[in-house]
Amino acid sequence: MYHMISEHLPKNKSKFNRLRVKPSEFEKQLIWLKKNGFTSFTLSELVNLEVIPNKAVVLSFDDGYEDNFTKAFPLLQKYNFKATIYIVLNRFNENWATDKDLDKASNELNSEKMLNDEQIKIMLKSGLIEIGSHTLDHVNLPKLSNEEKHTQIKESKEKIEDIFSIKCNSFAYPFGFFDQNSVKIVEEVAYFNATTTVNGVFDKSKYSNFEIPRIMISGRQGLFSFILKIKKGRNR
After folding, report:
1. Cα–Cα distance between 144 and 52 in angstroms, integer?
2. How many CA atoms lie less than 13 Å away from 196 in the CB half-sphere?
3. pLDDT reported for residue 13
4. Alpha carbon 154 to its chain's center
5. Alpha helices in 135-219 (DSSP H)
6. What is the pLDDT along the chain (236 residues), one digit of tens a residue?
7. How many structural domains are present in the chain?
8. Using CA atoms, how far apart are residues 27 and 21, in angstroms rounded to an integer?
9. Which of 20, 75, 86, 149 maximizes the CB count within 10 A of its CB?
10. Structural domain containing residue 73
11. DSSP code of residue 175
12. Dihedral angle, C-alpha 156, 86, 99, 208, nearest 10 °
């Protein structure tokens, strides 16, 4: 699980440098994966496999930051790696991003440039990128009524399909927050899979396709930490 591929802000101006993996570090990670025989899949491809290979990896990006196109995408092309990017549909609203610890809008995250539709279309044409939904407004789903949940989950899927002329099969719960009603709606409105922020590796015998775990890749940790996470299959 990634968010941004970008240089860090000065420490006194950032709470979220952990969400910023430097491009040089991201390239080191891709090189290591390549050298060690990993094959990348989109999330939709992975869940359709009858047996998941030992060295399968899905690179996922949450929110839809512009650096996913300007910084991450050229490196994905260079090393021929696929990725699934979950976009917030109303990501150009000035208060879409919330600091979940403080439960209020984050000026730091809201000031980040976001992917535009043309950039997304270019990535889709490459065949390396899958676009999934991260709701309309990056909401805390368990706090919403079932009607509001349904709107956020269903309409975001429909808008992605309409704007980009694709099937939107993948969903990511904002903040990793979900409840069983959210899971039920995601399945009912015809997504094929959904990712959480639960720490771990996807095992078809242990996890539902709608509660897929992920490993957080932090911008505050180097290649050694990345290798340990991949080898151990967990954050720590």
Report:
1. 35
2. 18
3. 84
4. 18
5. 146-164, 180-188
6. 999 999 999 988 899 999 999 999 999 999 999 999 999 999 999 999 999 999 999 999 999 999 999 999 999 999 999 999 999 999 999 899 999 988 899 999 999 999 999 999 999 999 999 999 999 999 999 999 999 999 999 999 999 999 999 999 999 999 999 999 999 999 999 999 999 999 999 999 999 999 999 999 999 999 999 999 999 988 87
7. 1
8. 10
9. 86
10. 4-232
11. G
12. 90
Q: Are 95 and 110 in contact (CB under 8 A)?
A: yes
- Structure-token pair, residue 93: 């609203």
The Cα–Cα gap between 86 and 3 comes to: 10
Buried b (16+ CB within 10 A) or exposed e, 157-194: bebbeeeeeeebbbbbbbbbebeeebbebbbebebbbb
- The structure tokens 């957080």 sit at 216
User: What is the C-alpha separation between 169 and 120, in angstroms, rounded?
Assistant: 16
CA distance 20 to 31: 19
The CATH code of the domain that includes 64 is 3.20.20.370
